[in-house]
Every structure is written in C-alpha cells, then in structure tokens.
C-alpha cells in the first residue's frame, strides 16, 4: 500500500499528485431551517409591534376602548342655548319716541314713518331735549328705563346698529327714545334689520366638544 493511500481504503483507491483532497463535513441543513424559521418569527413579532404603535398614534386604539369601557371621546356637539331670562318683545310691542338732535329738519318724522312700516309703535315725534340737542355726534342714542336694557333697546338697536344705548334709572313706563345724531344717515336696510332680529331672537349655540 502506498504512503499516499488513506488508511481504511484497503488499497483499492490510489491518490496521485502532491495534494491531499479536502474532506468536507456534510452541511447541516437542519440548522439552516431552524435559523430561517426563527428569523421569520422575529420579523413577524416586530411587524405586529409596529402595527400596534401605529394604531396608538393614529387613534386606532379608540375602537377597542370604546368596545370595552365606552370612554371614547364623542364628536363635536353644539350646546343648547340657555333660555333668556326675559323674552324679547316684538317690534309691535315697543313704543318709540323719535327725537331729532340735528339741524336737519323733518328727519324725525321720516325716521318715525319708516319705523312704523317695520312694525314699531310710534309715540312722540319732534326735537330732542336740550340735554341732547346738537350734542349727539354719532348716528343716534337709544334711551329707555333700566328694564329695557336687555329687552326693548336690543330690538330697536337692530334698526340702527351704530346707536349708543343708555338707560335712566328714574324713568317710568316702557317707551324708549331714538335720539337722532349728526352721524345719522338712514336706518339699516330692512332685510338686514330682519336678519338681525331673527339672530337676536334665536342666537346660535356655542360649539363645544365632549370631554374625554
């Protein structure tokens, strides 16, 4: 048997040349399969965790909380307007004294006639008292008793939006005054005044959001 013949081959095979062949161990495919399976499990767990994080930050988790405890924040709602302590009177229930504090003649009568067409009752028509005569720089002043501040004066104010509102504590009765000032041009357009009356009688509720 030659010196180059590996033991155990019984001399049947002869190796020639000056290099020994490398004897490789059989590949362990079992380990490879296990590693691939483990990697798939790790990736699956990581992907599931990522989806959970996405649901948390995008609000997807609210569905689960709503089904379990019912603590989901509700959609934006509108609060019901609180009823007014004093109902606003209609124009036909308000008596207006139209007084002219300017140097333009006939202005009080013209304004009174227009207010009458819009449903107001007209009282006195004439010149303003010395307290206001030629002393009102704006479009006008609305005067009335203390009780008219939140009732008759706001309704009359829809006809002359820029007018100042004042009350007199010692004043008797329910009639109010419209004192025409130097800045007066005309009453508000009837369509605008009607819209202002509707909004005044039915104010829009303030939008609110349901708390968590």
Helix content: 25-40%
Unreliable sequence segments: none
The neighbouring-strand order within the major sheet is: 3-2-6-4-5
- Tell me about the largest β-sheet: 5 strands, mixed
Number of strand elements: 7
Beta strand %? 15-25%
Tertiary shape: elongated
Number of helices: 5
The end-to-end distance, rounded to whole angstroms, is 93 Å
Class per helix and strand makeup: alpha/beta
What is the radius of gyration?
Answer: 47 Å
Order of helices and strands: HHEEHEEHEEHE
Tell me, rounded to a whole number, the average pLDDT: 78
How would you explain this protein's 3D organization?
- Helix content is 31%, strand content 17%.
- With 212 residues, it is α/β, with parallel strands linked by helices.
- It has a 5-stranded mixed beta sheet. Strands 1-7 form a two-stranded antiparallel sheet.
- It is elongated and about 110 Å long.
- The model has no long low-confidence stretch (mean pLDDT 78).
